[in-house]
Amino acid sequence: MSAFYFGSPQRQLFGYLHTPQGSATGGVLLCPPWGAEYQYAHRALHFLAKRLSGRGFVVLRFDYSGTGDSWGDSTDADLSQWVDDTTLAAGELRAASGLDRLDLVGLRVGAGIAAQAVAKLDGVRRLVVWDPITDGDRWLNGHGVADADQDEATVEVSGSLVSSDFVRQYRSIGGNMLDRGTVDKMLVLVTQRDAWNRDILPEGGGVERELIEQPASWVEEESIWTGQIPVDAVGRIVEWLT
What we know:
By secondary structure, this protein is an alpha/beta fold.
């Protein structure tokens, strides 16, 4: 695993590249959650990247602008920019792996970001939508953010200070973000039974939907101060992509 910066010198993104020991059989771009969910799911995404690289994939994990170790402050968070960040990361993965066709895996809000990026990318074979947020308004309300908070210049959400414009963007998140675009195959993987809503998930050939009940990787397990690794869900993603 190697850590590096990429992109414009004025707006660099930070990433981790996992490479297989032998020749690469594919490339996978991982799109993370945001806020506290990013922090707690870091362990599970790292585990997934290691499992995939063990199967011959070159894997890139990265931070969106305004998050993690990438350029910007939390107030620079912007969903539209994150889609562009994802397309940039895909180009970096192609350059690093020498492969034209890639697969994308997105967790939580990263699922919607990945799906939106597919529309701007050529050569994406498969898309994994993992425990997607399909109702941004409900998610914000569950984190104590009221409609009136959008009248403020900045709002604290999930431990991060963000702009009111970002809050409005998040409220607009819906199942329509999960359009499969031009990918050949799409896996919608849900680990929480109360989030299993077939009506809001994409339809059409090539779309597979699975419920595998597992611990929520993006929620803190107080005994270990981070999120749990949903081993069965990770294993399913690896097998599906392999």
